[in-house]
Amino acid sequence: MKNQVQNENEIRDCLLFSEFEMSDVDYDVTFDIVDIDFFYETVTVAITDNGRITQDTFQLMKDQDGRCYFEYGRFYEKKVYIDDFNEVI
What we know:
The structure is a single chain. The protein has 89 residues and is an alpha+beta fold. The protein has 1 helix and 8 strands. It has a 5-stranded antiparallel beta sheet with strand order 4-3-2-1-8. The protein has a 3-stranded antiparallel beta sheet with strand order 5-6-7, with no helix packed on it. It is 16% helix and 51% strand.
């Protein structure tokens, strides 16, 4: 259990200030990870969408390969995978 917590803290530290950009039909949407909590299985992201910046918390889910993602969109139809984020320097 201690090793799992340590690994999750290391992953969390690497993911903070990471960014992911997704192209929609007319504009780009940018996600910046603000916080990720593996205990409650949530991720808080700052979303830049069509010139507006919002912050939202999403439920973390895992696919059949064990990759973490959250769903985004009007009907939550788009999967945004956590490992697709890149560190911003």
